[in-house]
Design a protein that fits this description.
Elements lengths: L3 E6 L6 H13 L2 E7 L10 H12 L5 E6 L3 H7 L4 E5 L3 H17 L4 E5 L10 H9 L10 H8 L8
Parallel strand pairs: 1-2, 1-4, 2-3, 4-5
Length: about 160
């Protein structure tokens, strides 16, 4: 039986840590849907279209990975795409409490959808989108934190604060 996992997030932007989680999830599940949330309440640096474009570029070489944008409840999206698993990344103990609450909430909305927590490789454990955004706002070096395709897209943008 084929297992589909949904990896939701803002991905503002997608980092090497996110990419590592996607690769790990592909080793566990038959199909992984990277679901880029609109997340207007978080006031992302990049538009939804830009973030979807970056995620698609980062995952282009990964068989059985697909990228979509969304602006609904994660559980509703999972049902729509017949995903039985939600993937959540944990970098540190500080992530755990929030992620656990989110997992319990999602379970209360649909007990048939499981949440699986994956940790990135230790070399990516400190990487977060907020750290990357901070560096980008100062035109700092991010090539060691982002997939090369994402770094290229960002550096070529006219709308970003990088010019």
């Amino acid at each position: 039986m084929s297992k589909t996992a949904l990896y939701p997030g803002t991905f503002d932007p997608i980092t090497n840590g996110h990419y590592d989680i996607i690769v790990r999830a592909l080793n566990l599940f038959d199909r992984v849907i990277v679901a880029v949330a609109d997340s207007k309440n978080k006031k992302p640096m990049f538009t939804l279209d830009e973030r979807v474009r970056m995620a698609k570029a980062a995952t282009a070489g990964l068989e059985h990975a697909e990228v979509i944008g969304f602006d609904t409840l994660t559980i509703e999206l999972a049902k729509e795409h017949r995903a039985e698993i939600l993937i959540r990344g944990l970098r540190a103990v500080s992530d755990f409490e929030y992620e656990l609450q989110l997992g319990y909430l999602n379970h209360s909305l649909d007990p048939d959808i499981e949440t699986v927590y994956l940790m990135p490789n230790l070399r990516h454990a400190f990487v977060s989108s907020s750290i990357v955004r901070n560096l980008l706002s100062f035109n700092g070096r991010t090539d060691h934190l982002l997939p090369p395709q994402v770094e290229t897209i960002i550096r070529e943008m006219d709308s970003c604060t990088l010019r």
